[in-house]
Amino acid sequence: MKSSHMLTAALALSVSSAWAAGDNTQPPIASYVVKPASMQWASSIDAQVEAVRDATLSAQVQGAVIQLNVRAGDRVTAGQDLVRIDARAAQQSATASAAQVEAARAAQQVASKEYDRQKQLFQKQYISQAALDRAEAQWRASQAQVQAAQAQSGAAITQSGFYVIKAPFSGVVGQVPTTIGDMAMPGKPLLTVYDPTQMRVTASLGQLQAALVRSAAGNVEVEVPGLAPSRISVPLSKAQVLPTVDPQSHTSQVRVELPAGTVGAAPGMFARLWLNEAASAPMNAATEAHVPLLVPASAVVRRAEMTGLYVLDEQGRPLLRQVRLGRPVGDLVEVLSGVRAGERVAVQPQAAAKVR
Q1: Distance of CA 273 to the CA centre of its chain
Q2: Domain ranges in the chain?
Q3: Which architecture, in CATH terms, is 87-160?
């Protein structure tokens, strides 16, 4: 990455006229004045590709897998039969329920004819009102029995349908962790299906980065190694920051939709999000605090596990200060903490170390 492409370092080179106290033979210390970057800068976040529609299919009933119609990578259509589970017991139960419906209907027909005869006899005053009421009660009871039998038959038919796993939508079979002969259990995954036409990239953002995305102060680019030769530019209208924050990592999840027609993207692929901030974007407390500070890479001092810079004080004396560095940008390096804008750092640490 070249600094001319990503960042224009707003660092003014100055030559310190300070001399070490009590030693006027020391040469002046060349230094850089640290200032925030004034042009476009970018930060990258590791991410991964996932499908917007991704279903894990499992059985609602228990039984042995007797038919497996797909393999991983196969394309399926909505409603297509994918897995069949042994449903002989369920089919027998459905048949028995259908027979009970027929028996209930026959009993209802008998009760209906008996009720009609009792009404004719009552009109001729051959029977009492009580006898007619009993016939009517039996007729109504037979109707209720038919309805109950029909409900039980419908439940049995619905139950038998659970033994066939169908594709919920058109897509691609991702994983098939089962095989013929396995015992399917309620909740046990049998296979996964995802829609390759709707893909997105997800990443975890820090609070400041999430604030940049929410304020729509720039654009976002997606890089998927091996998928596209260049970064994919995505408008921020296609980026969504979830409203919840992880209490452990204090990060928010962002979802960025990939353009329709992105070929080759698969769930689980490594990706990288690039958040770009333009110089013309309005500065606020969040963005200003996150604008990087750059120093020359030659000014960095590394001693064992310590990384530092020689920072000049008000008298021009170099003092070694520990810093935390970020990513390199050409001949410069980003400083995450340890220095502030306006401070001067020595660009020749060997010379600054000799000043006493």
Answers
A1: 14
A2: 3-37+292-353, 43-52+196-279, 57-86+163-194, 87-160
A3: Orthogonal Bundle (1.10)
In CATH terms, the fold of domain 3-37+292-353 is 2.40.420
CATH number of 57-86+163-194: 2.40.50.100
How many angstroms separate the CA atoms of 16 and 13, rounded?
Answer: 10
Q: Which two tokens stand for residue 65?
A: 């897998």
Cα–Cα distance for residue pair 73/176, rounded to 1 Å: 10
- Please enumerate in sequence order all residues whose Cβ is within 8 A of that of 346, keeping only pairs 6 or more positions apart, or say none: 16, 29, 30, 31, 299, 309, 310, 311, 312, 318, 352
Mean pLDDT of the 267-272 span: 91
Instruction: Tell me: pLDDT of 216 over 80.
Output: no
Instruction: Please state whether the predicted TM-score (pTM) of the whole model is above 0.85.
Output: no
Query: Which pLDDT value is given to residue 69?
Result: 95
H helices of 31-170, in order, are 88-123, 129-161
Distance CA 200, CA 241 (A): 13
Give, in degrees to the nearest 5, the angle at Cα 165 between 160 and 166.
115
pLDDT tens, position by position, 300-351: 999 888 999 999 988 888 999 999 888 777 688 888 888 988 899 999 888 8
The architecture that CATH gives domain 43-52+196-279 is Beta Barrel (2.40)
| Segment holding 168, helix H or strand E | none
pLDDT tens track for 49-60 = 999 999 999 999
Within a 10 A sphere around the Cβ of 304, how many other Cβ atoms? 5
